[in-house]
Every structure is written in C-alpha cells, then in structure tokens.
C-alpha cells in the first residue's frame, strides 16, 4: 500500500520541516505519483498566491521552536524541568531538524571553545617555564 501524505506533510515538505526519513519517502513517491505531484503543485500555488492558514504561519515562523539561547541553556543543563522537558520533546519526539541543527552547531562551538581554552592554557604554561622562582 502506498504512503498517504497529508496536506500538512506536503506543506512541511516545502518548509523542509519533515523528518528526514519521511521526506525521503515523499520524494520517492513524487517521482511516480501524478496526483501527489499535482497536490504539491497546488500547495506551491497557494503559497505563491499568499494564502496561508494560521498553522502555516506558525510552522513557517517556527513559533514553537526554542530560541538559540534556550537551546544553549539546555545543552549546559541549566534549564528548569518544564522548559528542559519541552525542548527534549521538541528535539526527540517532534524531531525538529532546524533545532537539531542549531543544537549541533552549539555543541560544535562548545567543543571548539574547550579546545581553544586547552590550547591557550598549554601555551601559557609553556611560556612561563623557567620564569617562576623557587622560594
């Protein structure tokens, strides 16, 4: 039985907001399914005409996504229970790719900063070898 894609999924596909696996299945179905191609074309036409639902606006502007600062606090483990649980749900259950990419970027920045601190510390200690007096 072929996959059935909702209009919401087609809109999310256009926003690149579907989970990667579901997006791949939709792309595969689009190759051979003329009805699905027509539905996607109509969705693009509605967007081009400026027809938007409240849900479209909510998804497009990512109103349910945490801010980058909140994701940073989540990464550091300093959030209270409720926001921490929401972000975990948003990342793990909803699988928001935008927030996952933001979090990955923050992790990379954190790792780079730690490497830079270690490098500076080693350089500082190496530059002071032999310059400290014994008492």
Structure, described:
- The chain is mainly alpha-helical.
- Helices cover 71% and strands 0% of the residues.
- The protein has helices at residues 7-14, 20-32, 34-49, 54-60, 68-76, 81-92, 97-127.
- The N and C termini lie far apart (83 Å).
- The relative contact order is 0.08.
Strand and helix layout:
Elements: H1 7-14, H2 20-32, H3 34-49, H4 54-60, H5 68-76, H6 81-92, H7 97-127
The total count of helices amounts to: 7
Poorly predicted segments = none
Beta-strand content estimate: under 5%
How is the biggest beta sheet arranged?
none
Oligomer: single chain
Number of domains: 2
Q: Give the distance, in angstroms, between the N- and C-terminal Cα atoms.
A: 83 Å
- Summarize model confidence as the mean pLDDT: 87
In total, the number of strands is: 0
Secondary-structure element order, N to C: HHHHHHH
Radius of gyration computed on alpha carbons: 23 Å
Overall shape: it is elongated
* Computed structural class: mainly alpha
Helical amount: over 70%
């Amino acid at each position: 039985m072929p996959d059935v894609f909702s209009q919401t999924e087609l809109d999310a596909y256009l926003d690149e907001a579907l989970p990667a696996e579901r997006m791949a299945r939709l792309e595969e179905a689009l190759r051979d399914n003329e009805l699905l191609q027509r539905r996607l074309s109509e969705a693009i036409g509605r967007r081009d005409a400026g027809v938007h639902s409240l849900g479209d606006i909510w998804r497009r502007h990512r109103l349910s996504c945490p801010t980058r600062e909140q994701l940073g606090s989540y990464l550091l483990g300093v959030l209270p229970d409720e926001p921490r649980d929401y972000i975990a749900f948003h990342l793990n259950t909803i699988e928001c790719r935008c927030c996952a990419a933001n979090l990955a970027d923050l992790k990379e920045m954190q790792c780079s900063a730690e490497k830079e601190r270690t490098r500076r510390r080693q350089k500082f200690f190496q530059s002071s070898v032999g310059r400290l007096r014994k008492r």
